[in-house]
What does this fold into?
Amino acid sequence: MSLLELRNLTRRFGSLEAVKDVSLAIEAGEFFTLLGPSGCGKTTILRMIAGFDAPDGGEILLDGISLAGVPPEKRPLHTVFQSYALFPHMTVAGNIAFPLEMSGKSAPEIRRRVGETLELVHLADKAASFPHELSGGQKQRVALARGLVNQPRLLLLDEPLGALDAKLRVEMQSELIALQREVGIGFVFVTHSQQEALALSHRIAVMRDGRVEQCDEPDTLYTQPANRFVADFVGRINLVEVEVTASSKVLLGLRSPCLGEIAATDPRPLAVGERGVFALRPELIRVHGHKESADLKNRFQGRVRELLYLGDVTHYRVELEGGQRIEALMPNAAPGRAKFHEIGDAVWVCWRHDAGVFLRD
It folds into this structure.
């Protein structure tokens, strides 16, 4: 039995159906992420799990028991918000102790649990500090500690890293992973950041317009997206309009109006004449100054139109002879590279036949 089950969950706001028949199962100890653009319904789902909002249809089950009618304070869950919601007049220890005091725990137990939780989030030396004396990352850890001190079955996190700068967000991602592994509590995490979701999660549900488009492990989402939306939303990708010209267990033949023939693979039986898109990640593409890689079936000529040096990689946008623009990421530490390609350079763009994936429209 899953720890948390959402069965056919629906929520309407007037004529707007914010969540449409969503069913998900979240396991104990899992770091589960709801990912999607603003307005896709992910925060509405989190609010319904927490009990701050009620569904118009469907069920929410915790350990197989319905949470219908159970008020937020009675649910063995805790929500961490982006704003942290710390009490400015209370010390760090006081903020963490607050949920225990509200639940009527004894003073000795409160002291013990607060001390243990402060150690867990590496803030024992800040117990007597006030929120205004803390950095953004320290405030985040206090909010997490307050969520963990009551030992909930699930911790719900609503864009918890959104208020941090880019460098601190990366640091806190590592801390979140370590913390979740150490406490073993299930996390349900809401974010619109694809990189954050890929870095943190055991599984990700990608949402659009109130529905789940795909729910999978991060590497599956990235390498085998279910449709054009997931492919385009999760990371950078090239999408080329194509038609199937041949289909076998060994090779998939595609034709692009701009590129011509493309060699690919697909285990599914596809019909000749079927239309869709060929999805290809930029890091799987190679850019050469002359016709190298004769072993690669896909080789097309073009010119560099844009480039962006990013330190470890360079991001190229190449316009091919048929007018198709292709994005490629090339590592700057690659052996044998004497110089970068410059804007206007004639180049060859190459990729393996098994590098991309065919997606039905």
User: Anything to note?
Assistant: The longest strand covers residues 298-309. DSSP finds eight helices and 20 strands in the chain. The helical segments are 42-50, 92-102, 107-120, 136-148, 166-183, 194-200, 218-223, 228-233. The mean pLDDT is 90.
